[in-house]
Specification:
It is a single chain. The protein has 7 helices and 14 strands. The protein has 2 domains: 63 residues, no CATH class; 179 residues, Rossmann fold, CATH 3.40.50. The strands form 5 sheets. A 4-stranded parallel β-sheet has the order 5-4-6-7. Strands 1-2-3 form a 3-stranded antiparallel β-sheet, with no helix packed on it. Helix 4 links the parallel strand 6 and strand 7. It starts with a strand and ends with a helix. It is α/β, with parallel strands linked by helices.
C-alpha cells in the first residue's frame, strides 16, 4: 500500500491518502470518506469558486449554502454523501430502461445529459465527474448544462485530458449510427460490468471548444504528478499509436 499526506477537501480529514495494488498515487483515496484525490480537488474547486478560500472542507462549507441549487450527474460517492442533505440538491444516473426524469425502482432519478428534463435556469452549480468522455454528443451535453444553469452559475467538472494534444473524436455519431474512428476503449463503470465506451479524448483545447457555447472555461490543477514533457518517458509514441 502506498500513501501520500494530504487534506481531504470533501470531509476535512487531514491524513494520508492510500492506494492499493500498485495504482498510482493520483488514484489514492481518503481513508475517512473514500474520496479520491480527484474528488477532493473537485470539492476544493467548488469551495474556492464560491468564494470560501479559507474553508478546509466541503462538509464544513455546506451549512453556509443551504439556498444553493446543485445538480450532480452521479448518485453515489463521497461528494454525493456530503451534498445529499442540502434541500436544493438533485442527483441522477443514466439508467437504461428508465425514462429521463423518472425514478428507478431504487429511487434513483434518471437523466440523459444530452436531453435534461430540468427547466431553464434551474441550478447554481452543476457537477460532473469523468462523464463527458462517455457522451455520444458532448457538445449537446455541455449546451444542455449551460441551459439549466442560472445566470452566474458554474459547471465544475472533471474529464481525462490528454495534455499537449487536441481533442479527438473516437466514435463519430453524426450519421445517427456509431462509426468507430479509433479502436474501442472502455473505462470502468460501477453500474456496467462491461465498462463504459469512450467517445471522445479531450485535449488542451477544451476552453476553445466550449467558448462558442458561452462558457468561460479554465483548467484548475492543485497538484501535478508529471509535466507534459515527461510524458514520452511514461508513454512513448508507439504506445500512443496502439491506443489511438
Amino acid at each position: 500500500m502506498n500513501s501520500i499526506e494530504n487534506r481531504c477537501y470533501v470531509c476535512g480529514n487531514n491524513d494520508n491518502f492510500h492506494t492499493q495494488n500498485g495504482f498510482s498515487l493520483r488514484e489514492a483515496c481518503c481513508l475517512a470518506c473514500g474520496a479520491s484525490r480527484r474528488t477532493s480537488d473537485l470539492a476544493r474547486c467548488i469551495i474556492h469558486e464560491f468564494g470560501e478560500h479559507d474553508c478546509l472542507s466541503l462538509r464544513q462549507y455546506i451549512p453556509s449554502i443551504p439556498e444553493l441549487k446543485i445538480y450532480e450527474a452521479q448518485a453515489d460517492g463521497a461528494l454525493h454523501k456530503v451534498l445529499m442533505d442540502l434541500p436544493g440538491y438533485v442527483c441522477s444516473e443514466f439508467l437504461v430502461g428508465v425514462a429521463p426524469g423518472a425514478l428507478s425502482k431504487d429511487g434513483v432519478r434518471c437523466e440523459n445529459l444530452e436531453a435534461l428534463t430540468f427547466p431553464d435556469n434551474s441550478f447554481d452549480l452543476v457537477v460532473t465527474q469523468d462523464v463527458f468522455e462517455h457522451i455520444a454528443e458532448p457538445i449537446v451535453g455541455f449546451r444542455e448544462i449551460a441551459r439549466v444553469l442560472r445566470p452566474g452559475g458554474k459547471h465544475i467538472f472533471t474529464v481525462p485530458v490528454h495534455e499537449g494534444r487536441k481533442t479527438v473524436v473516437r466514435v463519430d455519431t453524426q450519421s445517427g449510427k456509431p462509426v468507430f474512428c479509433l479502436p474501442k476503449v472502455y473505462h470502468g463503470d460501477p453500474l456496467r460490468p462491461s465498462g463504459c465506451l469512450v467517445y471522445t479524448d479531450f485535449g488542451d483545447d477544451i476552453p476553445q471548444i466550449l467558448g462558442p457555447l458561452g462558457y468561460v472555461t479554465k483548467s484548475v490543477s492543485y497538484e501535478r504528478f508529471y509535466t507534459p514533457s515527461e510524458i514520452p518517458s511514461v508513454m512513448d509514441e508507439a504506445s500512443w499509436k496502439r491506443y489511438e
